[in-house]
Amino acid sequence: MSEHSVDRTPIPTISRRAERDAAAERRRNFPYRFPRDARKLGGKFSVDENARRLLRYFYLERRLAQGLGSWALAIPEFEVKIETGRHIFWHADAAQKLRNRLHEQEMRLTAIDGFRDAELDLLIEEILSAEDAPELLVGVHQVLGRALAIAYQHHIDDTDPVADAPTIRILRQILLDYEPMLAWAEAALAAYVEGGIDESRLERWRWHLFRLLQSLGGVTGADERGLRPVPLRAEAKPYKRGEMPQRDSRFVTFTHTGDYNVADGEPRHEPDTYEDKRLRFVRTQRDEVDAIEAFGTFLWDIRFKDFDAEYDLARVTWDEARHTELGHKTLLTLGYDPFELPNRLTPSTCRGPMEPAYAMAEINLFGEVGVIKTIHELIDEARERDDSTVAHISDFVRADERTHVRKGQRILRVMTDMDMKALQLRTRELFAECLVSLGAFRKDVDVLVLSREELEHYIGE
Fold first, then answer.
1. What pTM value is reported for the model?
2. Does residue 460 have a pLDDT over 60?
3. Per-residue pLDDT averaged across 115-133, rounded?
4. Is 273 a domain residue?
5. How many structural domains is the chain composed of?
6. Which 3-state string (H, E, C) describes 80-129?
């Protein structure tokens, strides 16, 4: 045997007959017959290969959360905008789970967060270059989402079920969100087609993106690579997020004020009564659709600056989607057709083209703080009047907004190093100027003399 050769002779089992028989006897006498663990040792992946795949999964989930955020303003349809707000968080939460597992396997968080892949970026940019919301759903869900779900299931089947049990667990948790998400997308696309969207256009786009993903070796990068389709929209014209909020044809919208009574022309209730404040609060929640747009957009605008900030923004986006649902459903409970009440676009119109730090400061330092100032009194009066519906939803909204204010302070520190006082002042100036441009104030009004309370009222978060 040479000096550098390895002895591959099987190592003998040293089992003593008496000890083996004694062990068998103890097993026979043990009274409990627990379920047998049928899992077998062995899997296709080493730790390194496992990590390589998980890192790609992480990156795709992170990019999907960012990318859906970039479309939050541009999606017109109410239900699709709300569902997208939910999916933004589901993808971010999947990314966090994968990030934690990679870190458990001794990869530094800085290395995980710093990972970039130009090929996967091109795929995401092409998906985001969709002509409209139906094409976006095709790319995000029918192509990449479905491919990720299949890859996760194959990974569960192929990895070591004992040694890599933590990975299996998190992939199963992620798939719990994928099942309703993909089912919803199929139903939504069917609704688009039934409503007149050209199905052949969507199918051409799906096949184009499928071939692009195939040319990259699929989700894992380990599949056989096909030819890349040409041309690519993202190469002809770099993707840029929308800046103006879109609403579907069921809505009547206004931007000239933040005051519902002004927008309605004639107040529905005597101003400043409980009835007036109650309806204003519920309408404000329905119009939190603009907060889905805000936080989703921020997630895109600060992409790759700080993963924890991205995650918090994604969670707040989901919260705002829930607030929108609460407002919509409460209007129904109060006897309204929610679409009979005009929708306020004022804050979103101002924030859309604005630098993220100022837009975030407006919604966090003015909007959410303003809600907290007034909501306690509303809850107390609702309970006194046994207005159970409003008391119930506002109690949950209050808890969410308190959390948002705390998270928002951390996010702002990622967005800017400006002094908070200077940030507040500049934000007041910019939003007051925007309100003047929209007609909420006369042009001769000195925007610097507007109080914080006036801005909170007209912005109306």
1. 0.94
2. no
3. 98
4. yes
5. 2
6. HHHHHHHHHHHHHHHHHHHHHHHHHCCCCHHHHHCCCCHHHHHHHHHHHC
